[in-house]
């Protein structure tokens, strides 16, 4: 029914109730007029569907295209020697050598600098922290980007060093008959030494790798031992909170027969990945470690990459010719599996892209498996990194730092 107010208004205009109903009731309209209205609605809907479909098709086409060339947006000359290494860090570039370390932006401008003199520098990062350690020497420095850094000396030569997000340094030192893993807080005003984990090689095995959790409360370490002619690995979980004090900090362990654990990496504050020859195990709950998931491979693990969202593994068969890329999210869900034939030196995951690069070549793959950028370089490069734009990247070669835009 038409409302009384609307009916009254139309009556003043001289409209009868019959005309009123014809205006507002499509059922009472003539057949041809109704067909016109239906046609207009159908045509409009078809245009909308066609437009949306075209946009989706174009988006899919352009979103999956592979670029093979680039143009230079800007470039600056490198003012350092070719002994400098570069690494992507905090959306900038971390460069370091035996003579110092600095964080620079894409234009080569320093964000912060740190000075030291080392014979063989080894660098590790966690969130905003950076540690630079002198392998074979007895000093390390920790940086947070806000000051000139904190340096410390060790009692014995350094084998390896890792850092937490809090700045706690886990340093493996080589003593005469054993290796000792020591935790230091270089920012402490009292005692810098937090804890020690001694390792007698003859009894416990040779330390292969370890990592410290971002909160600095847990260390997970792998050791290799031999029984007859066969090697095996032991992985230990050490926790430095009140939970671990009742068990000499040891809160868990896992033995791997006939398999070497090559790398230990924390994926988040409370999850750690154990990379072995034929698979990867991810554990959670560092106060009482429990297996979150495991991935087994028929081929041997060749390369490893991970980010805050993804975990990537490249496996290779016995001939080393057939390689397969496997990518999972942090919870273990399958994201990508595809055969690859890239020849590469570095394998990295940045955001939603997978980087394979060699001195004269880069291949960038999307998480859906489609290639995004494949290009050969005339000059030798020290790295290819994200450029802060979907089609822009940072290219570091022996002479320059370039921001480039990829194109067809």
Strand content: over 45%
Instruction: Please describe the biggest sheet, giving its number of strands, its sense, and whether it closes into a barrel.
Output: 4 strands, antiparallel
Distance between the termini: 63 Å
Number of helices: 5
* Spatial order of the strands forming the largest sheet: 1-32-31-30
* Shape assignment: globular
- Regions with little confidence, pLDDT below 50 for 5+ residues: 15-24, 56-61
Q: Give the number of DSSP strands.
A: 32
Overall pLDDT, averaged? Answer: 88
Helix percentage: 10-25%
Structural class: mainly beta
The gyration radius over C-alpha positions equals 31 Å
Structure at a glance:
This protein has helices spanning 4-12, 17-24, 31-63, 201-204, 242-245; strands at residues 69-77, 85-89, 92-97, 100-104, 110-115, 121-126, 129-134, 139-143, 150-153, 158-163, 169-174, 178-184, 193-200, 206-212, 218-227, 230-239, 250-256, 261-268, 271-276, 279-284, 290-296, 300-306, 310-316, 323-329, 334-340, 346-350, 353-358, 361-366, 371-376, 381-389, 392-397, 400-407. It is mainly β. Mean pLDDT is 88; it is low at 15-24 and 56-61.
Could you describe the 3D structure shown?
Helices cover 14% and strands 52% of the residues. By secondary structure, it is mainly beta. The strands form eight sheets. Strands 1-32-31-30 form a four-stranded antiparallel β-sheet, with no helix packed on it. It has a four-stranded antiparallel β-sheet with strand order 2-3-4-5, with no helix packed on it. A four-stranded antiparallel β-sheet has the order 6-7-8-9, with no helix packed on it. The chain is globular and about 95 Å long. The model is unreliable at 15-24 and 56-61 (pLDDT under 50).
């Amino acid at each position: 029914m038409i409302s009384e107010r609307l009916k009254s208004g139309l009556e003043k205009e001289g409209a009868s109730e019959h005309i009123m109903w014809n205006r507002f009731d499509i059922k009472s309209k003539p057949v041809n007029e109704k067909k016109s209205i239906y046609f207009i609605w159908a045509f409009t809907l078809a245009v909308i569907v066609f437009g949306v479909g075209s946009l989706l098709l174009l988006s899919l086409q352009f979103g999956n295209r592979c670029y093979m060339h680039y143009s230079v947006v800007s470039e600056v000359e490198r003012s350092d020697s070719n002994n400098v290494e570069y690494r992507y860090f905090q959306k900038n570039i971390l460069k370091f050598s035996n003579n110092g370390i600095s964080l620079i932006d894409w234009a080569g401008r320093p964000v912060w600098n740190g000075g030291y003199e080392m014979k063989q520098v080894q660098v590790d990062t966690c969130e905003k922290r950076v540690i630079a350690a002198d392998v074979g020497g007895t000093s390390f420095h920790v940086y947070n980007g806000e000051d000139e850094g904190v340096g410390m000396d060790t009692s014995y030569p350094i084998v390896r060093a890792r850092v937490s997000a809090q700045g706690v340094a886990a340093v493996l030192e080589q003593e005469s008959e054993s290796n000792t893993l020591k935790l230091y807080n270089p920012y402490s005003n009292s005692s810098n030494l937090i804890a020690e984990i001694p390792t007698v090689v003859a009894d416990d095995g040779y330390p292969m790798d370890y990592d410290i959790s971002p909160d600095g409360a847990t260390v997970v370490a792998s050791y290799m031992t031999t029984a007859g002619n066969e090697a095996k690995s032991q992985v230990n979980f050490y926790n430095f909170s009140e939970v671990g004090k009742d068990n000499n900090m040891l809160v868990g362990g896992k033995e791997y027969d006939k398999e070497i654990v090559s790398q230990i990496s924390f994926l988040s504050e409370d999850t750690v990945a154990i990379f072995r020859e034929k698979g990867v195990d991810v554990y959670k709950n560092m106060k009482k470690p429990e297996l979150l998931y495991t991935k087994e491979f028929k081929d041997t693990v060749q390369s490893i990459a991970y980010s805050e969202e993804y975990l990537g593994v490249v496996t290779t068969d016995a001939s080393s010719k057939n390689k397969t890329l496997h990518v999972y999210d942090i919870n273990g869900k399958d994201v990508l599996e595809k055969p690859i034939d890239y020849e590469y030196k570095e394998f990295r995951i940045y955001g939603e892209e997978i980087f394979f690069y060699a001195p004269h070549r880069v291949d960038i793959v999307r998480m859906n498996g489609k290639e995004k950028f494949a290009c050969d370089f005339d000059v030798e490069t020290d790295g290819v990194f994200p450029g802060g734009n979907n089609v822009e990247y940072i290219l570091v070669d022996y002479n320059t730092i370039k921001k480039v835009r990829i194109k067809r």
